[in-house]
């Protein structure tokens, strides 16, 4: 798939160069020339899992040009295209690779008039791979070898937001739900208060009281501290119609800004948002990194253990029902080790339809 992705990336690059040569236009009025047809994907049902795989050259993904809360496009920045030739070449020769695995289970009890369809996230693996023909690519990726990487290897797009949704067809009457298993997250904040009282008698020569006693010295001190627990990735469950949604957003650990929604200080509608570029530097190293050493992201059941359930009537027992599965991914580039003003966010979505076999249920529970 990387060989095919390399050819598709070259095709997108040629289309963009031809369009710029035929109709030269200022950067502010130029339309994004994406090629969604080059973003390949497929989904299937196997061994109790729904598996969705997607491959998209970065240049084929549409660029996000407006904030999530608004519909008005922003003005293109003068540094929309990177000025450095090596950085420009490296950013266009990258490919998004996504594998999403959802585990489903059909449960029923004797005497009930419905069956329960439960879905949970088994695995979501996201990686941005470099496209090119080099003899040492396999060895460098196998051992995570930073020694074999060139100066631009760390300058990659990274996933900043993921939206995975699953559910029956639109307007289907054979399923009721969804019932979510996770509440809206409430940030935790620990407050610790310490009160200290110290007492001592006055030293010799101190002023005595009228009755001949010595006044004691008393010191009181109080200290309070607050500690909040922040995580780079914030996951939550939502419902959109009859579909259940698993959504994760990457936030800057220093400022708390959502990376995918940041558009720069000059064009940001809510100007109070902090600049995440400093916090996302050297994002592939250190103990607090949000990505693996392979420069990817893995989300497993320990991060999203909760299920989303639907209820299906017993009259559908023994049939195979159509179910919808889709994934939407946002990729963002911010400078990692080089000094550049370039930043961008791109997005791609893959909707698919899979089978849900409802096998006949015998016994009290299954």
TrEMBL record:
Keywords, sorted A to Z: Signal
Signal keyword on record: yes
Residue span of region Disordered: 260-286
Signal peptide: 1-19
KW Signal (keyword) present: yes
Name of the featured protein: Uncharacterized protein
